[in-house]
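Exam revision sheet. Question 4 asks you to relate a sequence to its structure. Input first:
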Amino acid sequence: MTVSFFISHITPLTFFCFLLLSSSAAADLNITSILSSFQNLTSFSSLLTSSSVASDLTRRQDPITVLAVPNSYLSIPPASDLTRRLPPSSLGDILRYHVLLHYFSWTDLLQIPPSGVLVTTLLQTTSRAPANFGAVNITRNPLTNSITIQSPVTFSPSNATVLSVIKTLPYNITILAVDSLLVPYDFNLMTSETRPPLGLNITKALIDGHNFNVAAAMLSASGVVDEFEADEGGAGITLFVPTDGAFGDLPGNVRLKSLPADKKSVVLKFHVLHSYYPLGSLESIVNPVQPTLATEDNGAGSFTLNISRVNGSVAIDTGIVQASVTQTVFDQNPVAIFGVSKVLLPREVFGKDSAGAMAKPGNPVVGTNVQPPETSPSPENSPWLSGPASSPSGFHEDMKSNGERFRLQSCIVALCCIGLYLLV
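Answer key, structure tokens:
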């Protein structure tokens, strides 16, 4: 017996388009757009924007968990005193301490051992937090399942308790409401208030260095120096600037000045990290594969630099050339400028298989080494990161933490719909 099914020709196509639109919706969301949906988090959202932390988070592509403080808790001391009297630069560092470089669902939090786990925050990447004071220790009370977050220093006076899960976008962003503004241990408020103002003239600093005239001229002519100076706020920037001799040593087939303006801009951005790294931090860098400003324009995993310590000096490998840091041109938080022995040539532009082509924004270049996401110091295969658990009353997640499975199922369903459509 043959059973016939009537399927409208438009249904599979409509459903397929819906899947495509829904899968891309999460990619367009950022922290402030998410927080804008919650009236009790408007003050925290405003602080993120005014301190430039929001723009830093928009550019990040790694999974994060944000600890948001509701309006009622920000309006009482000591949080109200700090937010009123601290300058944006210092307040920005406190807010960066509320951005965990790890994705936590409520299920993940319930499996944290009572002894706690150490998790890196965005503050730690600025090199303005000594030792591990830019990390937080997350503990769970096994009797009540309450989650406490505080400095890794024993008996730290600053701590916060998780109130609820505000939003979860699987394996991308989680926003937790906490009952207090966290202050990093040994955070010198007086020093922070007298931090030198931003606004370094990068071109002038290079000219004063007496050996970077070519780089200064290229930066000024391209206009990207204005973008670099705009990025001095927030987490800061680190520039690797080739000496005049490095430009003279370029191979004959490499003609930087004849590159189209867009490619020339990308090559210049390839010399800049979107974080402040003094020399000591470069020498002891944990994750050698570092994204650059060019990475932000062309997609995760592309235009990265491999930074390591070789023969007592900092080496920078692009996949085509290996340069070394020869001198410190300028180093004052939040800007570091280092002279390097060679022009950093990205393989995406000058590699044998590149044909001068660059990846389109959002698409990694095929064949490049994808940078692993920054995570907490805890092992990825630790037992507390896996296993079933349920959210208690008062806690909610907007989406379940099975995004990868959902995307796979969506693709299968879409293919089945297309197959049914072709059979009709």
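Marking note for examiners. Residues 16 and 221 are 47 Å apart (CA to CA).
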